[in-house]
Amino acid sequence: MIISDEAKVFIEREMEKTGIRALRVLSSGRSCSCCGPGFLVKLGAEEMNDRRCTVNGLDVFYEPHAASFMESMTLELLADEQGGGLTMRSGGRCMP
Question: What is the pLDDT of the chain when averaged over all its residues?
């Protein structure tokens, strides 16, 4: 997993607002028909059986079946005149 420096600043601001100090990667509950299960990233605490890593100084928890997705995922900041948000890419996998 890669988190760009710009995305890190955005995430840290959101963490400050919410008091939640970690990211969590989990199944979206929807399938991306061309390539298997979809995943999402949100602020959240560790849950039972989660794995942990640190990426660009941020704690990240993820479901065990998200491990292969984590290897190729990149979070970047997407900013326009309406504000900013995160976008994720994953080496050739479609994103739901």
Answer: 84
Model confidence over 64-74: pLDDT tens digits?
888 888 888 89
Report residue 6: phi and psi, to 5°: -65, -40
Residue 49 counted as domain residue: yes
pLDDT bin (cut points 50, 70, 90) of residue 43 is: very high
Tokens of 56: 């660009």
Q: For residue 82, is it within any domain?
A: yes
Contact status, residue 37 vs residue 26, Cβ threshold 8 Å: no
Secondary structure (3-state) at 43? strand
**CA 57 remoteness from chain centre:** 14
Q: Can you give the residue range of the structural domain that contains 29?
A: 2-90
